[in-house]
Amino acid sequence: MIQTTQELAEFLNSCNGEFHALDTEADSLHCYHEKLCLLQYSDGEKHVLIDPLAIEDLTPLTNLLKTSELWMHGADYDITLMRRDLDTVPPVVWDTQIAARLLGVKKFGYGNLVEHFLGVELSKASQKADWSKRPLTEKMAEYAINDVLYLKPMVDMLLERLKEKGRYEWFVESCHQAKAKVLERPQVKEDPWRIQGAGKLKPKGLLYLRAIWYWRDAEASEWNKPPFMVCGNKQIISWVNDACVGKEITLPKYFRSSRRKNFYAALAEAENVPENMWPKRIRGEKRRVKDEEFEERCAVLAEKRDAVASELDIEACLVISKATIETISANEAEPSDVLMRWQCELLNL
After folding, report:
1. What is the 3-state secondary structure (H, E, C) of 174-214?
2. pTM
3. Sorting pLDDT into bands at 50, 70 and 90, what band is 290?
């Protein structure tokens, strides 16, 4: 475990070659204020754990990341963490999950791939561990280092097979697009209380939803636990539906008295909000074309997609998603605006 800036600089200076692999661990399952708790790094030969909770200055690492091509697995979440906590995103991020899916591998979790390509079965015992705790147990340390230990040999095999199948350029374009999509997302979500199920609610239901969501958020913050540990989203929607029809809401018996008091106070406050200040429903744009011709164009494109995917033995959604089929069929966008070049070529668009 590297725990000082000097140790970090000395280690990175000792690394040679162009291969860089990284994984991250956070405490999102255990704390309200999620933070980056551990970094696992490998140059293909040397593998270390880096402790961002102990190291005062991570500049040696961020300087490396700013100029390096980085290998990761399922990089979406990791890119978000690096952007937020390190204020750094590498210029190129190669993702082994994308590579595996383009090869038609059906089970593409990291452990699945290590077993598939290298015949090693990894333990999942520390998957939900609290990574903010120190010292790490031996099992946690082993679990963490395994996330980069096998990346180099697996990368070599993935690249060889991608090139054999003529899909390497697909991989390059897909990785660039995946990174761009993550960076396009706003770092602060507007109206975070609009959870799944909110789209079906009328304004009064949205009013209750907003009130209960912020009640839960405040309770979680005070407790310093993730919001789902107070209650889940499905439970919130259920309470909202009860409130909308005037049904008495029964809270879990394990809720302490202050939590119950705050809940009913939040509902009472919502009921006093003037109607002209209730949240409004967000209506999606209606398609201009939704007739038989539109449906036929969708069917033709979906049939072509399925045939291509079957021939290549990859998931159909990798060729083109249902939403993109509808966008193109409604003439809302040109194929080149919503598809990668390799997808356009496969579909002759």
Report:
1. HHHHHHHHHHHCCCCCCCCCCCCCHHHCCHHHHHHHHHHHH
2. 0.90
3. low
In order of 90, 93, 151, 195, 300, the CA distances from 1 in angstroms are 23, 24, 19, 39, 56
- Apex CA 32: angle with CA 140 and CA 50, to 5°? 35
CA 70 to chain centre: 18
Q: Which fold has domain 198-277?
A: DNA polymerase; domain 1 (1.10.150)
Q: Which residues contact 115 (CB under 8 A, 6 or more apart)?
A: 121, 122
Cα→Cα distances 168→94, 118, 176, 177, 346, Å: 12, 21, 13, 14, 14
Residues 6+ apart with CB under 8 A from 276: none
Q: Over the stretch 23-70, which tens digit does the pLDDT of each residue have?
A: 999 999 999 999 999 999 999 999 999 999 999 999 999 999 999 999
Question: What CATH superfamily is the domain 5-184?
Answer: Ribonuclease H-like superfamily/Ribonuclease H (3.30.420.10)
In whole angstroms, what is the distance from residue 104 CA to residue 24 CA? Answer: 26
Q: Which two tokens stand for residue 278?
A: 């209730």
What's the CA gap between 47 and 29, in Å, rounded?
26
H-run or E-run covering 131 = none
